[in-house]
Amino acid sequence: MKPEWLRVQVTGGETAGDTRRLLGRLGLNTVCDQARCPNRGRCYQRGTAAFLIMGGVCTRNCRYCAVESGVPEPPDPDEPGRVARAALDMGLRYAVVTSVTRDDLPDGGARCFAETAAALRSTVPGIRIEVLTPDFKGDPASLETVARSRPDVINHNLETVERLFPALRPRGDYRLSLEVLRRFRGLSDGAPVKSGLMLGLGETGPDLEKALEDLRGAGVVMLTLGQYLRPTRNHAPVVRYVTPEEFRRWEETALEMGFESVASGPLVRSSYHADLYSAPLL
To answer: Are 168 and 236 within 8 A, CB to CB?
Structure first.
């Protein structure tokens, strides 16, 4: 049974309904729905959403993720324009663009990120863009393609600690993800680099402290820490529910380690209130 601090009241209303209808009409996916984010009602009520590009089917099968795994369709060339139209209609000044992992594509979908960023900027002047990318298998050309699109924040989630990585992300690599972040830092032209971890999967305090040290060593300045919630019985179980007090302690620790922006709490997710947490650094 979930503890009291994780019991989220379902929110809705006219704005939330309008957001859902707009996304449906434009045929767009959001990580809010695909990943079953507990905050999606609140975000839709604010008129915000994290766009999930390149379809809703992932080529990987991480043990914590609710996104469907399988063989995806080819990317839709019209999708960047529809994302931009949605951002315009929603009145967004800050857009989060993420994707499923597309190991089937030669560039991992990097060009789709760049095209979406270009469409957003041409349609919504002054918009700020955060990209939350897969690892692109560490391909330097793909990382450069994304960086050249000039995102305001570059995010790649580490997700879990090194000891648990092989079991939870069998087709990923802890060191590769750190190298991706390090390369993004070098290519970012001053844009802050961001990453996030889920807690409650069986990590220990020393595990987490080492992961934070590794992220700082890779040049990450923005951090999110949130509680893992099991999407279905087929996914990795929750080992424990981390208390709000412990999340606050880890926030203090991360700030002492040199992170410049830290969002740490049971319901924190990478894209939740991303505009607010990014504001001090932009």
So the answer is: yes
Q: Are 222 and 260 a contacting pair, CB within 8 Å?
A: yes
Pair 154, 193: CB distance under 8 Å: yes
* Strand ranges in the chain using DSSP code E only, listed in sequence order: 29-30, 50-53, 57-58, 68-69, 94-99, 128-132, 153-155, 193-199, 222-227, 261-264
Domain assignment of residue 55, given as a range: 4-281
**CATH number of the domain that residue 107 is part of:** 3.20.20.70
* Count of alpha carbons within 13 angstroms of residue 241, beta-carbon side: 13
Count: domains in the chain: 1
Q: Rounded to an integer, what distance in angstroms lies between the CA atom of residue 9 and that of residue 254?
A: 29
Q: Tokens 């648990």 label which residue? A: 164
Of 7-11, 27-31, 212-216, 233-237, the range with the lowest mean pLDDT is 7-11
Rounded to whole angstroms, the Cα distance separating 223 from 203 reads 17
Closest CA to 107 of 129, 135, 131: 135
Q: What is the pLDDT of residue 263?
A: 95
pLDDT at 6: 86
